[in-house]
Write a structure and sequence with these properties.
- It is found in: Cell membrane.
- Keywords: Cell membrane, Membrane, Transmembrane, Transmembrane helix, Transport.
- Belongs to the autoinducer-2 exporter (AI-2E) (TC 2.A.86) family.
- Its main location: membrane.
- This is Permease.
- The protein has 411 residues and is mainly α.
- It has two domains: 152 residues, no CATH class; 158 residues.
- The longest helix has 44 residues.
Length: 411
């Protein structure tokens, strides 16, 4: 009996063992396929994460650049007003610290700029009108010399060939009279845009001088609360850099203009004051502006004074530019605008491609300001800073908006 039970138990155990799956051979097991994300190397994952974020940033910057180009008649005067305000705000604040009323300090700063620009225009116009007769005579003389060089020089052109070329030029002008008329209308329209832009610059500068801090506080409050200290600190750092850049650039441009215009006046080159004004304006475009305006000064000396004075003018321009490049730029500009010279050249080139002359003018201050803002955010100096306070409300406005307390009815 017991023997039979043991046999049945062994049979049941054998049956259960037969039903149990066999142990797999480790060498014959095929690896389970992983997901695609798991097969990507970690370095590629990090590069992809950076790539789409950079593409998003570039897309946003592209949209902003497109909007700036479309609204150039508003954006350019606004940028110019900001640059001008960066120069005038310290002057206005200095007068206010000496107990000058704010409205008077703002008025003196704004009117001072208008008077300075008007004085420059008056000096340039006066010199051009005063030297018109002599310039006209010298121009005709140089034209005759050019014709003589073309006929008697290596080219050996005949008078008939020169007259035919002149007649062809006149015919081309007459055929393109319609284009010239449309160009004149375009110039008229451009003059209207220029006048509108001048008014926008003056009004924008005025309001920045009056309430620039309040407008910036309003801009900061558009951002999330946690980001406000970083935005406010970056904006203040960029504004400080822009102020220093404008002050130093005005000093450097003034030294360049006085040096080149003074040298031109000493050797008797005509239009010394207009040349100085062009050099002053061109110096705000680093590297490129000085070369272009210096070349113009040499060309005027060559046309109206001859080869000897032109060579002397080249020496004057080179000396001034060497002083700027090796003395003024490292000692004065280098401590303010910490941007590599290659970055300056590339920014000027990119600004010229995008915005023309205005782009070359605003490229370097924009790059310097953005560089300062990015460095401030990356440094983390804004962490732990309190949220900037809301813009102050004038006492009269606060009193006007305060609700009067109703009087308690008397019994």
């Amino acid at each position: 009996m017991i023997f039979g039970q043991r046999s049945r138990a062994r049979a049941a155990a054998a049956a259960r063992a037969a039903e149990r799956p066999a142990e797999p051979d480790i060498d014959s097991v095929q690896p389970v396929a992983r997901t695609v994300a798991e097969t990507v190397p970690p370095g590629m994952v990090i590069a992809g994460a950076w790539a789409w974020r950079l593409l998003l940033i570039l897309g946003v910057l592209g949209v902003v650049a497109w909007l700036v180009i479309q609204l150039e008649y508003v954006v350019i005067p606004l940028f110019l007003a900001i640059v001008l305000a960066a120069l005038l705000v310290p002057i206005s604040q200095r007068m206010q610290r000496r107990h000058v009323p704010k409205w008077l300090a703002v008025a003196i700063s704004e009117i001072g700029v208008i008077v300075a620009v008007g004085a420059l225009v008056y000096l340039v116009t006066t010199q051009i009108i005063g030297q018109y007769d002599s310039l006209r005579a010298q121009t005709l003389t140089r034209y005759a010399d050019l014709r003589g060089f073309l006929t008697d020089g290596p080219l050996q052109l005949s008078e008939q060939q020169l007259n035919d070329a002149y007649a062809q030029a006149v015919d081309a002008v007459q055929r393109d009279a319609g284009a010239l008329l449309s160009g004149a209308l375009s110039v008229t329209s451009s003059l209207g845009h220029v006048l509108t832009g001048v008014l926008l610059v003056l009004f924008s500068t005025l309001f920045i001088l009056i309430d620039g801090a309040g407008m910036w506080s309003w801009v900061v409050r558009l951002f999330p609360r946690l980001a406000r200290p970083a935005i406010d600190g970056a904006g203040k750092a960029g504004w400080t850099t822009l102020q220093n850049f404008v002050k130093v650039q005005v000093l450097v441009a003034l030294i360049d203009a006085v040096g080149i215009a003074g040298g031109a006046a000493i050797i008797g080159v005509p239009l010394a004051i207009p040349i100085g004004v062009l050099v002053f304006l061109g110096s705000f475009i680093p590297i490129v502006g000085a070369v272009v305006t210096g070349t113009l000064a040499v060309f005027v000396a060559l046309v109206y004074n001859g080869l000897t004075q032109a060579l002397i003018m080249i020496a004057i321009v080179l000396i001034v530019q060497q002083v700027e490049g090796h003395v003024l730029q490292p000692l004065i500009m280098g401590s303010v605008v910490k941007v590599h010279p290659l970055a300056v050249v590339l920014s000027v080139a990119a600004g010229g491609m995008v915005g023309g002359i205005a782009g070359t003018f605003f490229a370097v201050p924009l790059v310097a300001t953005l560089n300062s803002m990015v460095k401030h955010v990356a440094s983390g100096a804004w962490r732990g800073q309190p949220e900037p306070p809301p813009p102050a409300v004038p006492a009269d406005a606060a009193h006007a908006t305060r609700r009067p307390n109703p009087r308690k009815p008397t019994r």
